[in-house]
Amino acid sequence: MPNTKFCQGISDISDSYTGFLIDTWGVLHDSEKVFEGAIECLKELKNRKKFVLLMSNSELRAHEMAENLKKLGLPDGLYNEILTSGELLYNGINTQKDAVFEGVGKNCYLIGGERARKFLAGTDVQVVNNLEDASFLLVSGWDNLEGELSSYEEVLRETIRRRLKILCINPDSRALLGNNYKTGTLQLSRRIQELGGVIQMIGKPYKPIFHQAIHILHNNDIYPGQTVMIGDAMAHDITGATLVNMDTCLIRSGIHAPVFKNAATPGDVNKILSMLINQFNNIRPTYLVDRLKWGKALPDRKHRKRPA
After folding, report:
1. What is the pTM of this model?
2. I need a labelling partner for 207 at 20 to 30 A (CA). Which of 89, 162, 171, 239 fits?
């Protein structure tokens, strides 16, 4: 596998791609303001007629995310579309046309909290209190789950016995890191699989949201081989895009900033990157850049469209 290319900015790779999938929190903003350099970068991509799709695991709908980004300082018109896990779930359970959501019905038994309940209140779905009234089970990673894993055992077994469809929104990989965390949705999801159940994961890094991204790209005559995913999380962005055969660009200054903090030389950076790659099943980002910025444009750039 080729080594990761260290880049000064997105200008280093802009000629090679037509589509740009860009994570939001940690890449575009820190939930308080848009990062310095991000707006210039998006303007440069727009000037070169690149297709920019913003992706997020937020429960916000696309139009709500757009309003939120505007409040954080991102001007209108610097991206083409927004895809959130909330948008995917909303459209999926309302239309039930996609295979992931086909036949889920309208009665939801929820393992989750207020954020999920508020979201579902805006859909055609009714939350039911008894499993026997449910047509599907939703496990919410938007909320902290209460209790030990064993406390959900009876519900999980009964759900599988009734052959209900099971959806999990935003499984939380942090549940893997130790005993200091409460029961996580990823733990619940793995227990469902151990019991013989089938569960559909909604959100990065899982395939449904990336398949929807590919569908959006196809509608604009763009293919995965012409697209790069720019994100700050190995677990969500880099892994998910790699699994659908997209090139990737890891942002150093995001969620992994603490491990890169003391890297003084390119050799130090490479050692830390190799450690991350080992932690994430040898998945290697195609590029590494400090933050989302344009960088230095080279004088001989042709801004060619990469063939499919």
Report:
1. 0.90
2. 162
